[in-house]
Amino acid sequence: xxxxxxxxxxxxxxxxxxxxxxxxxxxxxxxxxxxxxxxxxxxxxxxxxxxxxxxxxxxxxxxxxxxxxxxxxxxxxxxxxxxxxxxxxxxxxxxxxxxxxxxxxxxxxxxxxxxxxxxxxxxxxxxxxxxxxxxxxxxxxxxxxxxxxxxxxxxxxxxxxxxxxxxxxxxxxxxxxxxxxxxxxxxxxxxxxxxxxxxxxxxxxxxxxxxxxxxxxxxxxxxxxxxxxxxxxxxxxxxxxxxxxxxxxxxxxxxxxxxxxx
Amino acid sequence: xxxxxxxxxxxxxxxxxxxxxxxxxxxxxxxxxxxxxxxxxxxxxxxxxxxxxxxxxxxxxxxxxxxxxxxxxxxxxxxxxxxxxxxxxxxxxxxxxxxxxxxxxxxxxxxxxxxxxxxxxxxxxxxxxxxxxxxxxxxxxxxxxxxxxxxxxxxxxxxxxxxxxxxxxxxxxxxxxxxxxxxxxxxxxxxxxxxxxxxxxxxxxxxxxxxxxxxxxxxxxxxxxxxxxxxxxxxxxxxxxxxxxxxxxxxxxxxxxxxxxxxxxxxxxxxxxxxxxxxxxxxxxxxxxxxxxxxxxxxxxxxxxxxx
Lengths: 262, 308
Prior knowledge:
The structure holds 2 protein chains of 2 kinds.
Chain A: H1 13-36, H2 48-57, H3 59-92, H4 95-110, H5 113-124, H6 128-152, H7 156-164, H8 169-207, H9 210-220, H10 224-253
Chain B: H1 3-18, E1 23-26, H2 36-40, E2 50-53, H3 61-67, E3 72-75, H4 77-85, E4 90-97, E5 102-107, H5 115-120, E6 123-126, H6 132-141, E7 146-149, H7 157-161, E8 165-170, H8 174-180, E9 185-189, E10 199-205, H9 206-211, H10 213-232, H11 235-244, H12 250-264, H13 267-272, H14 279-292, H15 301-304
Parallel strand pairs in B: 1-2, 1-3, 6-7, 6-8
Antiparallel strand pairs in B: 3-10, 4-10, 5-8, 5-9
Helix pairs in contact in B: 4-14
């Protein structure tokens, strides 16, 4: 099933980025003027220029911290992708299993991470493992929920067709249900990617390391400029992960799904 | 919301705005014995209507006071100096703790003999790295032998779990909790290394001092009387605070109030009055923070506090 209209208009990255760039420039410009004009106190909200200066001054520390956070967030995200899809496939196998286990999956959605934080440290020790666990716990639920919805909403007509040809459950799963669920799975992954970054940073508040630790220390030292610099880098990390999922989405869906055919 | 409700809501909001003559005192932790004086203070006697705002880990009281979202706030002297050096005009008025209540607690079974000893032996030390004393410790002893991890903010479970775990603490708080849970605790006060900032300092902003000069003096008088009341008989205040913070048992309130007494009432306060501060102590701290590089443009000692 080849669709000739799959080629996106990729001409000119700059015009495409322009709409996002304008609010950025307006907001940073206004903030800079507000701080310089004394409308906003610099120890509450830093001027964008001082955030930039903090970034340059502490670049080695920030780059190192960002790499550490990226590794943990990515690992947590990969784990929740694999485990989340696996759990969803398991849940989709029967109504009874779904009734028995789905409520427990919701646990991940509602767990107050901060409350169990001291326990995470005892279970996994200080450092990377706690951070990865934290990223995993907060990012798995959207993967489970979206994958499950995707798998369960396979077109009944196609399912009948597979049955008619005597396809096994496994074949139906991998050749039909799974590919059909891909758009929903990718939506789940988009949500999960942002949550994994948040989870990693919360984990770093407790377990040490990375951007979370930089934020914690800078906050204690009343360095709002550095806090914002670290937070900005965390957003960049979230954006990068989001972009990665979009790329995967484009590559896998462009040939057949309307969402990637504009 | 229909139009009538909206008008009603707006009227209510305006009314609240008008009656906001209440003075806000922002705490940087939950209602616990360290704030006993502020809960015991007879504000009405001094013509004050005070609303105490409890806080938690990381409540930015020093920024709140600077920004005017609270007229008064509880800060530490080192925190105040850093704030001043960053252009936040915050002024100290009354210091509950004359001696630094911060310490590091360890398991007594390790038989360590000093703070220096903690850093000479392999183990984990939980403390907020951003704090001035953490950097002073690093400068004095180095952190090569130990693993520094974030402070668990009063939680002692990791400490109980690991014999080689040390953690920053309020001398009169976490050690008592850990003891109750069966640990054999030993505490080394941070003042042992000569770092002794006033703590639980009631501060206000330069703005408040200028625009409402009549407010600070009775506030200090009320706090001083509150401290006297709390030292003489902490029980009624503990009962009130325990209602606000029911997770802390009443007998722990009693025990903590007793344990913190020597940090509050000293030779100096017997001479100069409870809560009083001296220029010399502020200047010592300014020098220490300057040496650490925590403050660049050092404020003058006499600008940091006001005596009433």
